[in-house]
Amino acid sequence: MKKIILASFLVFSSFLVHAQDQKWSIEANYPLVANSNLQNDFNGVLDLGVKYRFANLGPVILGAGFNAAYLKNFNNFTYGSASGQDLEFDYKAKQFLLQPKLFAELPIPGLSALRPQIGIGYTFSIVDIYYDNGDQFIVDNTKTEGGLNLNVGLSYDISKRFFVQAQYDYLTIKFKGESEINGQTSNYDFKEKTGFIKAGVGFRF
Hints:
10% of the residues lie in helices and 73% in strands. By secondary structure, the chain is mainly beta. It has an 8-stranded antiparallel beta barrel with strand order 1-2-3-4-5-6-7-8. The chain starts with a helix and ends with a strand. A hairpin with a 4-residue loop joins strand 6 and strand 7.
């Protein structure tokens, strides 16, 4: 029992040391699709992130981070068909982005509250689409793909702990595989290039 208490105390003490150094930060952002080479119909909902700064190389601070974003698009309405019967159109699309990355903060001399940042990482894109036109045409697919993620950003410290930030993420994701629609299989092979603008708030500890 004493060993457990001692171990817990050491872990807690280590956490306090890190907290004083403010190596960690958490953030909440709103993700907005800025541009895409495809018709990207997803709307941003929420992006959450955590960062850990593990090295100081002169004026450059290196760290690792992880973000998870949720985007969606829903549509449902009733329309008339050629037969005169009302049909229900139902569309539900969800996209989850999981983004581990490495980043570098570049403090500006004389402007310590401003922190420019650049990063590189990998994005896992999980897309879940359900589409039913009400007339025997149904799509129900979930796909996971991945690709390179580059980002640049700028944060501003409004206090010792709290900050606001904005960043731009550029994603290149290759989609390749097979899809089945109403029992028929078709192949697809394309690359999506998407830009996201994220704006939000954060807390350092």
